[in-house]
Write the structure tokens for this entry.
Amino acid sequence: IIEYVKEWNEELDKDRGNTLKEWIEETIQDGIEEGIEEGIKKGIEKNTLEIARNLIKLNISVDDIVKTTGLSKKQVLALK
């Protein structure tokens, strides 16, 4: 295993100019960034649904809710 890791580290260094440690750190950072982006996306979706629910309570038309929130007509109707 140690020899395999050494060879892999050498190949990474040749191909990318970075070491195994740097590759692992970059991979972890990429994962963190993807997780943050996914969390933000889910938060926005949750807020958009809440806004749509509030607009429904105010008797705003489905078409206007679709225009305002970007949700589909089907999504808005499902909230009723």
